[in-house]
Design brief:
Layout: E1 2-4, H1 10-22, H2 35-50, E2 54-61, E3 64-72, E4 82-90, H3 99-113, E5 118-124, H4 130-135, E6 139-149, E7 155-164
Parallel strand pairs: 4-5
Antiparallel strand pairs: 1-2, 2-3, 3-4, 5-7, 6-7
Helix pairs in contact: 1-2
């Protein structure tokens, strides 16, 4: 079952993040990650979700959170058609069961509901989820070498991906009234 997460899921999200970092997942944190740091990260993310700047989704097996993904919606004014996928994490014990794919599909559906026609994401080149992203239709835009440190040390490159979603309509910038150059 996949559902939108709220503050009542913070502890389970922190457990998931700590497990991911401990197992070597490149999700912006170094090993060891403290409980305080994990809680602080999710507190900020959940506050942003309460402002509707992002959506946190969770996959459950019974009553246990086994995966999460975040849809970042807070984009600059000239990018109202875009969103970003972040923090796709699946419990080590539940990998290879289609949970990450289901989370990605749910995030894409929510993006379409919010008129987001372009999704972007990045993943580590060492042990990242590039194969998954390509299987669900993301296109490699490019790779930057030595982009970030891996949780247990050493540099890793990052691959950037994009995907169009829903019916792609022509997007025009909002009209600017007053303050423009006179013709």
């Amino acid at each position: 079952m996949i559902q939108i997460l709220d503050t009542s899921h913070r502890d389970a999200l922190s457990d998931l993040l700590i497990e991911a970092v401990t197992s070597g997942a490149s999700v912006s944190f170094m090993h060891p990650i403290s409980r305080e740091k994990a809680d602080g990260f999710w507190d900020k993310a959940l506050a942003a979700a309460a402002r509707e700047d992002r959506i946190l989704l969770g996959a459950f097996d019974g009553g246990s959170l086994v995966g999460t993904v975040t849809l970042l919606l807070d984009c600059p004014d000239n990018q109202p058609h875009r969103a970003e996928i972040a923090k796709l994490i699946t419990r080590v014990s539940h990998r290879g069961r289609g949970i990450a794919t289901a989370l990605m599909r749910a995030a894409e559906d929510l993006a379409v509901e919010r008129s987001r026609t372009l999704l972007v994401l990045d993943t580590a080149t060492d042990g990242g989820a590039a194969g998954l992203y390509e299987r669900v239709g993301y296109v490699l835009a490019g790779v930057i070498p030595d982009y970030a440190f891996k949780p247990h040390g050493g540099l890793s490159g990052t691959a950037f991906y994009w995907k169009r979603t829903g019916a792609v309509a022509e997007h025009r910038p909002p009209s600017r009234r007053g303050g423009g150059l006179a013709a």
